[in-house]
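Input (structure):
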């Protein structure tokens, strides 16, 4: 009986969150799926049901294929940057930084993740600007010619990977930090007693 009451209390406690989540996420997704099965014209009231014709048309669209490939490249690029770099930064903060400074570093690393994408994109657009951007100014000191970062197809993908990695890195570091903090100190002590190096303990 007590367990049943506890389950009922837990369900009632998360019900408002589930209701909000359903309203702002589940219902809009369902509405988008419904609209995708119709021929949608903003100027016409007649929106006939066409089934999967829109999806079939997408499979024949060259630009859609190119967008999928570019998205996959960007996702893979962000993954191979944020995962190893996130682990290294989390390990440095957890093992090397004194406890009184750890909160400062954790906050500093996490700030880009909570920054709105619009001002972040504007700032990075200025950094990558071909004429006035500080990146080209910095590289020119090493004899590198100015690059049109946002106009070259390959360089623009690299720029997007850098921006997305910068914003996602804080979240990755936070997740790994939580993992490090849940490991009992006795494991590290046992490793030291067994003569393990710092890298082996890691």
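Output (sequence):
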């Amino acid at each position: 009986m007590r367990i049943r009451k506890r389950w009922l209390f837990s369900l009632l406690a998360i019900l408002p969150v589930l209701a909000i989540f359903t309203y702002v996420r589940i219902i809009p997704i369902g509405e988008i799926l419904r609209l995708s099965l119709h021929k949608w014209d903003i100027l016409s009231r007649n929106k006939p049901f066409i089934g999967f014709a829109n999806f079939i048309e997408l499979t024949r669209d060259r630009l859609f294929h190119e967008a999928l490939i570019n998205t996959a490249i960007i996702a893979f690029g962000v993954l191979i940057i944020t995962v190893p770099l996130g682990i290294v930064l989390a390990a440095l903060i957890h093992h090397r930084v004194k406890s009184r400074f750890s909160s400062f570093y954790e906050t500093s690393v996490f700030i880009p993740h909570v920054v709105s994408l619009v001002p972040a994109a504007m700032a990075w657009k200025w950094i990558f600007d071909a004429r006035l951007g500080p990146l080209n100014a910095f590289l020119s000191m090493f004899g590198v010619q100015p690059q049109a970062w946002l106009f070259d197809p390959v360089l623009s993908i690299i720029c997007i990977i850098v921006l997305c990695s910068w914003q996602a890195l804080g979240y990755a570091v936070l997740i790994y930090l939580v993992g490090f903090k849940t490991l009992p100190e006795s494991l590290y002590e046992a490793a030291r007693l067994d003569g393990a190096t710092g890298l082996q303990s890691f």
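Notes: The mean pLDDT is 88. The CA atoms of residues 26 and 81 lie 31 Å apart.
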